Amino acid sequence: MSFKTLDDLPQDLTGQRALVRVDLNLPMKDGQATDLTRVTAVAPTILELADRGAKVLLLAHFGRPKGERNSTMSLSYVLGDVERVIEREIMFIPEITGPVVEQSVGILSDGDIGILENTRFWPGEEANDPEFARAIAENGDIYVNDAFSAAHRAHASTEGLAKLLPAYAGRAMEKELKALDAALGTPNPPVAAVVGGAKVSTKLAVLENLSRQVQHLIIGGGMANTFLAANGVNVGKSLCEHDLTDTARAIMDAADGAGCTIHLPYDVVVAKEFAANPPSLRTCNVHEVAEDEMILDVGPQAVEALGDVLKTCATLVWNGPMGAFETPPFDEATVALAKTAAALTQAGALTSVAGGGDTVAALAHAGVTDDVTYISTAGGAFLEWMEGKELPGVAALSA
Q: What is the dihedral of CA 59, 364, 266, 308, to 10 degrees?
């Protein structure tokens, strides 16, 4: 898709009021943010706009206040965290529309930064109320969306404002959209997709879409058991959605018709109980799983074969671990395949894009976070993009 970025704005933004949608929905513990990744991601956009002379007004949500003010969900709680990351003083504005905002903006000097109150304190936000969006827009001259993680929501601050003001993608949004386009929009073939996780039911739309888009679909995690069962494999007491075996067969048939090869494990790591390094641990062929055993990871022979598949591909999109990676030794398949993908990426042979909460944690566990092309921290938005859905916040930026 075509969209405008900060490069399409005049270099000198003195006198301009920039309404900037960011993601400041930070994980908190005892009143302190435990992870500042989201702030770090949007800092370049905030600082660039401020340094170019704009008055920067940050829009964000925090928690789920359901359209009502909630003192425990005020964005004032994250103000200090944002200030520490960008190393600038920020004015907190306890409203989002009206005279208080107008007066506060009047106090700000060119290049100053303000943060408006939690957008979700007002029901007009999630309802995408045009009047509410217009009221916000009155205090802005341009709109910048730098919150891909909220782009799957058609809210006033993510979609409504883009229709009322000249709209641009921030640097984090720009980087994300270019990475996603490289992965599934206009990728270099052959394309491989790794999809893992516990249940087929949570990623049905992802699997159906990818089976039409990629040449190799690698299925791991608990969901692989459902596909194995659909092929007549006895998976013992493994996590398996037996009621979805017909669906799994339909996905395999559709993939076959689309020229997509589905890769399932043929050797697996099993145990009689799910615990770290259990005494019953063993590796076996998928057809040798006992009734009292559960599949907890992909076996080493299959992982080696999957690595060989990646070596034939130019593009990889990854969502979900191959096994129960949080519990050793059931992290070995995920780590091994991640290291192969990272090595191919570093060699310039593979464009690798990954996303989803478990995926981010799994790749960090494998120590390859900095060695793949791009990692998206946007959970729901990334998943909906993999499902092939149009994201309202992205579509609204179309040039």
A: 100
**pLDDT value, residue 35:** 86
Q: Determine which one of 53, 63, 111, 357 is catalytic.
A: 357
Catalytic one of 17, 38, 55, 153: 38
Q: Are 214 and 192 in contact (CB under 8 A)?
A: yes
Is residue 282 annotated as a catalytic residue, yes or no?
no
pLDDT (0 to 100) of residue 399 = 62
> What are the chain's domains?
6-171 (3.40.50.1260), 187-386 (3.40.50.1260)
Compute the distance between CA of residue 173 and CA of residue 246 in angstroms, rounded to an integer.
Answer: 38
Q: What are the structure tokens assigned to 343, written together?
A: 């090595």
Helix, strand, coil distribution of the chain in percent, nearest 5:
45, 20, 40
Sign of CA dihedral 113, 130, 22, 44: negative
157, amino acid identity: S
**249 belongs to the catalytic site:** no
- Give tens-digit pLDDT for 346-386: 999 999 999 987 898 899 999 999 999 999 988 888 889 99
Mean pLDDT of 270-276: 96
- What pLDDT score was predicted for residue 37? 87
Cβ pair 347, 387 in contact under 8 A? no
Please indicate whether residue 111 is annotated as part of the active site: no
